[in-house]
Amino acid sequence: MPYSCQHGGTCINSTCVCSRGYKGSSCENESLEILYLRSSKAVFREGNEVLFESEITDNSNFTVQWSRDGVIISGILSRYSITSSAKANGTFLHQLRISSVYERDEGNWSIMASNGVTVVNKGIIIRVLPKLVLLMIPQYDLSIETKENFTLQCVVVNPGSLINLTSGSLIWVKDGKPLLTGSIFTISTTQTSTILNKASAEISDSGNYFCLHSTYPDPLNVSIYVNIIGPESVEILLFRISDSISREGKSVWLETEIYEIIDLTVQWFHNGNLITNSSLRYEIKSYTTENDTLRNVLNVPNVLQQDDGDWNITASNGKTTESMSVYLRVLPRLVLQMMPPNNISVESKKSINLSCVVTNPESLFNLSGGGLFWQKDGKKISPDSGFNITTTDTSTTLMKSSAEVDDSGTYLCAHSSYPEPIYVSIYINITEPIQPGFSLQMIPLGDFSLKCKEDINLRCTVKYSKFLISLIGGSFIGQKNGKKILSGSGYNVTSGKMFTTLRKPSAVLEDSGTYACSHTASPESVQVTVYVNVTNSVLPRLVLQMMPPNNLSIESKESINLLCVVTNPESLFNLSGGGLFWQKDGKKISPDSGFNITTTDTSTTLNKLSAEEGDTGTYSCSHSAYPDPINVSLYINVTEPKSVEILSFKSSSSVLREGKSLRFESEIAFDPALIVQWFHNGKLINNSSKYTITSSITSNGTSVHVLQIFNVLLQDEGEWNITASNGKTSETKSIRIQVLEKLKLQMTPQYDFSIQRGEGIVLGCVVINPGSLQNLIGGSLIWQKDGQKILSGFHINTTNTSTQLRKSSSEIDDSGSYSCSHSAYPDPINVSINVNVTEPEPIEILSLKINKPLLIEGEAAWFESEIMNKSGLIVQWSHNGNLITDALSRFTLTSSTTANKTSLYVLNISSVVLQDEGEWNITATNGLSTASRGIKVQVFPRISLSLTPKDDLSIQTGEVIQLQCEALYTDTPAYSTGIKLNWKKDGKDISSDPSFSVSEAGTTTTLYKSSAELTDSGRYSCSHSAYSNPEDVSVYINVTLSDKDKPCPCQHGGTCINSTCVCPVGYQGRYCEDEYLEILSYKSSNSVIREEKSVWFQAEIVGPVGFSVQWSRNGDLISSTASRYVMTSSKTANGKTLHVLTITNVLQRDEGYWTVEALTSSKTEARNLTVKVLPRLLLQLAPQYDFSIKTGESINLRCVVINPKSLTGLSDGNLVWKKDGVYILSDFGFNISTTNVSSTLEKELAYLGDAGRFSCSHSTYPDPVSVSIAISVTKPEQIRCADDKIEKIMWKSTIAGTTKKESCPENQKGTATRYCNFQGFWESPDLINCTDVSLVNANEELDSIIADGTTKNVDEAVNNTLVKMKNLTSQRSELSAGDISSSLDILEKIVNVTNMTSANVEKEAFFAVVDNVLSTNNSKSWTAVSDKTEKDASSLLKNMDRMSEVVLKKENITTSKFKGKNFEVSVDKTKVDEKGIVFPEKTEKTPNDTTTDTEEYSTFLELPKQTNKIEKPITYVAVIYKTISDILPTDSGSRTEENSNEVKEGKEKKKKEFVNSEILSLTTQTDLGILSPPLNLAFQHKHENESADLQAVCVSWDFITNKWSEEGCKVNSTNNKRTVCQCNHLTNFAILMRPYTPVRI
Fold first, then answer.
1. Angle at 205 between CA 203 and CA 206, to 5 degrees
2. Which whole-number Å values give the CA distances from 157 to 112, 162, 197, 797, 1461, in the listed order?
3. Are 209 and 223 a contacting pair, CB within 8 Å?
4. What is the rounded distance in angstroms from the CA atom of residue 1190 to the CA atom of residue 1184?
5. pLDDT tens, 621-668?
6. Cα–Cα distance, 1317 to 1279 (Å, whole number)
7. Residue 5 to residues 16, 30, 96, 309, Cα–Cα distance (Å)
8. How does residue 1049 score in pLDDT terms, banded at 50, 70 and 90?
9. How far is residue 1065's CA from residue 986's CA, in Å, rounded to a whole number?
10. Is the preceding omega at residue 828 within 30 degrees of 0, hence cis?
């Protein structure tokens, strides 16, 4: 008899063999057993995948939970994946997969299984090693220059991540290749850090540098990109001097402009000696220009001869240096010498003898014409004035044999062409001879000469003998050179009463002298003299004079300047040949001996610019042909310059750390000309916020120089020099300083954080710069908490450069400030972080709700719970104690974050079953605390509904609608709760619709309407309110018109009501057949308005559908394209339309009547309004532009109302003045005179405080209208630019360094500007804003057309403008930059107006203007336009393209051709799929034919017949531009300059892109897309390409990027004269010459 086995057990031999999950003799008991739990590994690294597997035996009604350290794990977390499956042996395999394990996952993992009766679990422990974290220092990509050093450091932030690695180390990889120690890099590696250093970077060192661990199992690395660039080159753009030849006493300036770059140092040198601002003779200034270049100016206000020589400017950035030089020649100041040198007195009848000599003839260099001349009392002495004048280049004599009293006066000698008023003068007093009681007379009467051996015979007689009686006892006295002549001295003296004679036979040379005769008894000292000159001949003895006259001592390098002059040129008479010459120490000085010798007949100069010690000696001057050895000499002692001596140079330390202070001190022997400079690594150091430089004099006479650095940085390492110089000798001493890095620590994490008790603490600390630990003995990184060293309670792992602090489970007492520092570092450097450990916050379930507590079987339900956000939160749903997961198909679990930062958890049940009744719970835990909430749910069986009638039906208007709905299975508790049946029509509830009645009887509800209407057609449904998604029952009722309700024939949307048409707005009549149009109201915001205000017009109109509205002013229609007008329309609540025209900026021409018109096809309604426009107040100030005056000059300003009509409506007020925004009152020192329309402001004597901005306005004008002018008041000595007239403009004087504005020349409008530079010199005027009046007027007329949108007379206005432009541009040989700029604007506006209004433009006139503007005569003006505006030749190219598009849009296009000097145009028609296009027409050659000499044919294009089918012939516009390529930019970043491919003079020539052909253009009426076959273009080169460095490139102009593009074009063939291209699209094409670029592999 078989045994009764339960739960599927099998009876074998009277024994039950139980199924899996059951046990017992009859298999009556459930069996639950976890067979095993295992993990994929026991030790993991962060980021690894973990797999737990467990096999469980039981029936299918058990639940499983996974947990870590007691915390339940949910499968809804993205990191966890929980699966289960049945095995073939009847057990269940449960898996938990962690996609990426974290360090916090370390611990005890367990699985629990429960079947409601038995609970079993198993556990397993895993260890998680932290993921390797590497830190690269620096952290971001690096860019340095060549020759600079770079250092990279890689640190293991968490050394614990290296546990279990038996070998390996940190390694470096560059661009995928490992870097080895001993290569070009220096690599230093420890267990946890590695340093890569390159001492002198090269371009090839650029690349990606990776750091990784060689044996770490995962490919973890950090990387940085190092970009090595060449050092920024220094470039001196210009270097100029005001005068290369100057004279002593003049001023000279040198100016340079340099591209401004980082660390730029600029130095000036003269003959190799550094020039600084410390010298009082030089002024050095620098400033940044508008072009971001650096302008440096050296001013020498008073040039001396020692300034002669080479002047250099040197610019350096420490890596590259550039120098430029100019030579300045300084001519000495003119020195004149008068002989005799002092004022003299001469008796009348005696002679006047003056000589004037140029002692330094080289001062006359470079003088054109002119010569020495004489003046007496300020008037030039002419040769016929009674004087005898003899003049050479360097000397002049003035003689008169018999002076008269009128000859008294001041005699002046000067040079007529010397630029400065240099002269010498002497006063000569001519007196009558003394007339005493008696007079003596010497015979002979005047001075005389005689030869040796001849006799001297002198006779002295009493001239007035009548006075002889008074001479009692007296006698004659003879003297020679002031000494009495005694008897026996070789002279024979014979005396009588009335005379005495003196005779000397056979005179010798020594007898020359002045002989005087007097009488001892004379009551007055009456004396007569005569000079006797005894010579070998009758000529005077040679007299030489040396300048300087005395011996001198100079230092080497100084100049030698000697002058020797013949003071009596007549002594050279009758000498044959010979001349003045120089000797040194008795040896003649030759011209090639290093001296510069300049000699005339009567003077000679000896010069040497730089004396040497060997030049010491006696220098003599003599005449080579003079018979006697006569010379003058002086001794020159040339000594070595005093040497500079640096006595000591020391520093406070040679090795120090960042942030410390450093002091250099040097003692130097005193020298009054001493200049001291400090250098660091060759770079000049000046006083700054970082460096303090001082100097002082000690008691022993030496000077002490100190350089103080208060905060030393790493870049201060290197060689420090002090250089002392006195302009002749210099000395330098140096000290090398080593700067150790300041310790830099980095904490991980970097910012304060807060954790809950029980969570782990992990802190890392890394030495970012291990080099800072250099020179430290011992010590290591240490941790402190709240200032106390951490000794226990934490796990600390420390290496030389990093440390980690770790605690797995924190306590409240662990809160505090944690700091990391180095125990041996001398400065208190640390990093810290605040850790706040708090009690775990309780989990708060804010709410738990369900969509409704009573559920009906089959409907959907949802549970929603709001929970406060917590980190690590795990949420689970359960029903009657059973866990709910996504694995069950009926359930969907979601979560989201609310606006209040809470979490919203939702459980959706797609279809409720009866078993869902019971308690539903939500549980939330974060491992530290847990919260739970529950809710009870009732589930009832579903209710069934029945509808009568069941089928759709159709009824007529007026019939009854009656429907019945019955609820079956009404014993359901849900029905007894009062839940009702609902009626809906087309988905909308109609239970409350008053036109229907609803009645209920038991379980039946009835819907009733006595008279159906057309609108009652629809689907009627019945549903039960207990269902959230009810399955209703429904029927469709179609209501049609009964015969008596047929409508009347209403038109235009009229409605038939009671057989009468109710018409819509805009229609009338019995059947709404007539249109109704009326302007109900028309008004404006104001009838009187001022210019530039806004005004609106508003019209309310009723009219039919589709009526239009037009606005007009004084009969001219206003277009909607107008920029000044805004037209809007809107519907009103009563169905009418509101039309508004707003004028945003009212102008004077808006005055008049404004009309609004409403139009239909058959009716028109119009209304008018008149508007008066008051002109805007226009004030004019005289003068118009800013100006400057000197103190003491007057201020005169006048303000005038140009249009008095603008003051209409103002009841009072007048013109008022302000200065710098403050009203000027009568007591301010100004005189103000005011009328109704003008006002003047005057001040006689301006002072510095009067400088400012003066403005004039009207006190009661409603808008802030004013005019102003800035007045600068300067001191008289301030540098200014003087008044100057150029370009027909008078430029008034202004301050240096400012820009002056003036009105443009006659017949031009606009403002001209001119810059006065810092030296007080005007630069060239800028007339870019000056435009011909006719062009300005044309521009304004086009603006009004565009602004107003008027279409009246547009053709006439546009074509009149073109005729004026054509005449203007053709009549002038060269257009100004302003006219070019204005012409471009006008052409663009003509294209816009033509496109906007469809005006018929005269193409021939348009093309003629373009042709004239493109003339090569306008090249300079085009350059100015490109430099000073945003326009260039591409603007013209774009306008031509747009004009082509406008031409091609017209329906009736006539073919035309235009051929000008500068471009050609062809407008024609063809069918391109049958016949191609050739332009210009060629008959002999094809573009691909390069076999024949290319000189035979020129530039042209050919479009072959296209393969794509074209329906009809199309019109095209073809253009060839012959000259525009010279002025088009080559790319987006630069513009060509006269088609040159070379850079500035003075720099190395570099190749540059340039356009080397004419430009071809083709535009078609229909877009041809990608051309097949492509367009062929043949270009003849403008310049033969003889350079192997240049290649021809086929390009087209891209109007978007505004540069040439190669896209879609290729070179088919090329040689040095010609290139053939193929392009697959249409636009503008050319040949661009481009330097070959080496291909980088």
1. 80
2. 38, 11, 21, 11, 76
3. yes
4. 19
5. 999 888 888 889 999 998 887 788 899 999 999 888 888 899 999 999
6. 10
7. 6, 13, 36, 127
8. confident
9. 32
10. no
